[in-house]
């Protein structure tokens, strides 16, 4: 059985790529220096795969920024504003497309989420009249290098249909008109790769989604062309992040030599596929998850591999990871501080490579009894960890009643009670929560971590930042104030550090986009809240002003979606545990007199599964968890929620079902278009559509914001509109923040006068 991983993390175990990129962008590292570091990492990652015993090494999965951008560069599809620039494609134009060119005022490509992961890709732009050409050959060069180093390379290419589906078609372009031109470039590449690579992997995760009719129609002819071009190599069709569902026939009839299934997500499709695999098509079984940090249950994986080998024959079976390991941290060996009982249940990218090899070897009859026994013991230890099962948490969960999921009265009545208490003007103004994390704030946090500042000193520094934020908001005459979140490094990590059932890695970084990495918290045990987490900070802010201060919490769905989550109990159950913990915080805030509580659900949509069938189930429990968190308060306590940029169209009824009194959403970049979903649905509660883009330092003018507000008022009655920025302001500086917020307040006053 051949063995492989679909891709390896690019950053390096010490985030070498991140630091090299940032040095390059600051002008401290030459292009050649950057390329050298990239090559070093690539070569090291091949070595890791070979040492693990994998029969193929992934080539072309490395990227200096993003693999979708790489594909656009390979195909020579540069938007006009970059194509006209007389500079080399790599690295100059490449990074300009990724990050924009401030000097020439060229905006970057739009960044958006890669399927249901927290990785962001750059959406290539397609305009009429573009002509694809082979413009960058990095994958071919890498394949040659790998061969010269004695590896058996498996080239990895993003497939044409997924690529085209992810592009933004602009100025009336028809993306599929580009297909013939693109296919000609793919043909050229495959012809060069085939003599170098025994296997070539074509990634088409779009097959795991509901594909557009045209994409479906073009899939077969495109596959036939790819197959013909790759003479001499085996073509592997890689699908991942879900099952194939109704696209299964398409995949089976594609003419590819090997079909890869993400068995960690599409286990239910396995036996059906094995029965229907046509001709001599082989099956690549993705048995090791690329989406978590946990050890694979080796005994189970080996049993599945054996079962499939019996059906298909060993020579028609490959063993691999479910998807690329891009979404995993690199090496568990570097974790020194984790509790041993938790650590022994974990496996990062390096370890997962070895798991793949062991599964195949054991299925072929090698004696891995010792390894399998140790694996079973490790997994059992994880389950038996007393912290994994907290009887008090389990009892509370069983005691959740339907009444706990609903507010006392319908929205209309709550609104009256809240208005009587808050006495807010029409079009009330507020912000989303965070204010600039100044150098002083960051320095205090660093000093605390280094032991150079004690808790009392840190507390005083944070209280000072809160007082400053409150004074500024009063000066701006905002209506609902916030404390500014100076004490939070990150909206999920902050809460995770105070909740039971969480732990943190030292080096568990995962690429989010470009050079940006995140270190998600780990939920390994039942979640509980030993003590209040925010009450003191919010209370301090409220003590400084007569205006209402909005308490600020992160919601259960967002905490879940931005963490690595245990898999021994359902995600919905973990989420309910978090919901109960945050519900306690809501109750404590209310008891302390907080009149308004915002429960952020920035990542609510991120957990949406790719398959329609699974979406309804997710939305049902996600909404329920939000309601469980929010519903314990009296009518007169106002619950807000906030969501960042998302397409609300298909999920609007679920957003409404959350029944928050006020929702703020990111809206300015879409020029209020996102609001139309709320209008059409006749969304019943209050809404604050963001009227200024917080992603850039630009200060929008009063008229501009008033214009957006007028647009909003055409869709939502003024009585239900709030006025606020798109999102939190922690990445901004104070001067631009003050100027922008002054204009926000002025725009609201202008509109009030017009009504
Ligand atoms: N309250 C958070 C903030 O203002 C919300 C952040 C977010 O939506 N991502 O920073
Ligand atoms: Zn946001």
Automatic annotation (TrEMBL):
Signal peptide: none annotated. Its cofactor is Zn(2+). This is 5-methyltetrahydropteroyltriglutamate--homocysteine methyltransferase. Keywords: Amino-acid biosynthesis, Metal-binding, Methionine biosynthesis, Methyltransferase, Repeat, Transferase, Zinc. 5-methyltetrahydropteroyltri-L-glutamate binds at residues 15-18, 113, 118, 516-517, 562, 606. One of its GO terms (biological process) is methylation. Transmembrane segments: none annotated. It comes from Desulfolutivibrio sulfodismutans. Belongs to the vitamin-B12 independent methionine synthase family. The keyword Transferase applies. The active site is at residue 695.
């Amino acid at each position: 059985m051949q063995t492989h991983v679909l891709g390896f993390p690019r950053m390096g175990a010490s985030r070498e790529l991140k630091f090299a990129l940032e040095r390059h962008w600051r002008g401290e590292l030459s292009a050649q220096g950057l390329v050298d570091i990239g090559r070093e990492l690539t070569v090291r990652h091949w070595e890791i795969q070979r040492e693990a015993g994998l029969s193929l090494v992934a080539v072309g999965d490395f990227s200096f920024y993003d693999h979708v951008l790489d594909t656009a560069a390979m195909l020579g599809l540069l938007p006009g504003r970059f194509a006209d620039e007389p500079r080399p494609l790599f690295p100059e134009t490449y990074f300009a497309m990724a990050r924009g060119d401030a000097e020439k005022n060229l905006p970057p490509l739009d960044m958006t989420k890669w399927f249901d992961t927290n990785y962001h890709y750059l959406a290539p732009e397609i305009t009429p009249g573009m002509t694809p050409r082979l413009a960058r050959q990095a994958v071919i060069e890498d394949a040659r290098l790998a061969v010269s180093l004695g590896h058996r390379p498996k080239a990895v290419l993003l497939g044409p249909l997924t690529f085209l589906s992810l592009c933004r078609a602009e100025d009336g372009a028809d993306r599929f008109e580009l297909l013939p031109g693109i296919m000609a470039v793919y043909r050229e590449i495959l012809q060069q790769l085939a003599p170098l690579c025994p296997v070539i992997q074509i990634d088409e995760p779009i097959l795991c989604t509901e594909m557009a009719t045209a994409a479906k129609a073009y899939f077969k002819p495109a596959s036939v062309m790819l197959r013909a071009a790759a003479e001499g190599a085996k073509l592997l069709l890689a699908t991942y992040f879900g099952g194939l569902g109704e696209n299964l026939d398409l995949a089976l009839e594609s003419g590819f030599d090997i079909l890869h299934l993400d068995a960690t997500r599409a286990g239910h499709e396995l036996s059906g596929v094995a029965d229907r695999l046509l001709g001599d098509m082989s099956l690549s079984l993705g048995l090791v998850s690329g989406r978590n940090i946990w050890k694979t249950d080796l005994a189970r994986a080996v049993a599945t591999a054996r079962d499939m080998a019996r059906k298909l024959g060993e020579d028609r079976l490959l063993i691999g990871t479910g998807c690329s390991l891009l979404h995993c941290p690199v090496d568990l060996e570097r974790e020194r501080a984790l509790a041993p009982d938790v650590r022994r249940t974990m496996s990062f990218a390096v370890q997962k490579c070895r798991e793949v090899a062991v599964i195949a070897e054991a299925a072929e009859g090698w004696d891995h009894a010792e390894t399998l026994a140790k694996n079973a013991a490790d997994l059992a230890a994880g389950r038996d960890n007393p912290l994994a099962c907290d009887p008090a948490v389990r009892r509370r969960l069983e005691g959740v009643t339907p009444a706990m999921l609903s507010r006392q009265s319908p929205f209309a009545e709550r609104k009256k009670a809240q208005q009587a208490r808050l006495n807010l003007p029409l079009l009330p103004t507020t912000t989303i929560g965070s204010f600039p994390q100044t150098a002083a704030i960051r320095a205090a946090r660093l000093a605390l971590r280094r032991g150079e500042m004690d808790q009392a000193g840190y507390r005083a520094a944070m209280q000072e930042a809160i007082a400053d934020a409150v004074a500024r908001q009063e000066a701006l005459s905002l209506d609902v104030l916030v404390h500014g979140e100076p004490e939070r490094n990150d909206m999920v990590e902050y809460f995770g550090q105070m909740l039971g059932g969480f732990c943190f890695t030292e080096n568990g970084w995962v690429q989010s986009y470009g050079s940006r990495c995140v270190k998600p918290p780990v939920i390994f045990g039942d979640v509980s809240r030993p003590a209040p987490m925010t009450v003191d900070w919010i209370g301090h802010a409220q003590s400084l002003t007569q205006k209402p201060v909005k308490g600020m919490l992160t919601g259960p769905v967002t905490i879940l979606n931005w963490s690595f989550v245990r898999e021994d109990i359902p995600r919905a159950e973990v989420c309910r545990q978090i919901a109960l913990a945050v519900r306690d915080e809501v109750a404590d805030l209310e008891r302390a007199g907080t009149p308004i509580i915002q429960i952020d659900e920035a990542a609510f949509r991120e957990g949406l599964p790719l398959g329609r069938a699974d979406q309804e189930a997710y939305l049902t429990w996600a909404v329920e968890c939000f309601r469980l968190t929010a519903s314990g308060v009296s009518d007169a306590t106002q619950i807000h929620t906030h969501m960042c940029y998302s397409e609300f169209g298909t999920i609007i009824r679920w957003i409404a079902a959350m029944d928050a009194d006020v929702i703020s959403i990111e809206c300015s970049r879409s020029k209020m278009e996102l609001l139309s979903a709320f209008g059409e649905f006749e969304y019943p509660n209050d809404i604050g559509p963001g009227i200024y883009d917080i992603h850039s330092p630009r200060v929008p003018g009063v008229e501009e914001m008033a214009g957006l507000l007028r647009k909003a008022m055409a869709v939502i009655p003024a009585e239900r509109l709030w006025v606020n920025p798109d999102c939190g302001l922690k990445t901004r500086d104070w001067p631009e923040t003050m100027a922008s917020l002054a204009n926000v307040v002025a725009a609201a006053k202008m509109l009030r006068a017009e009504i």
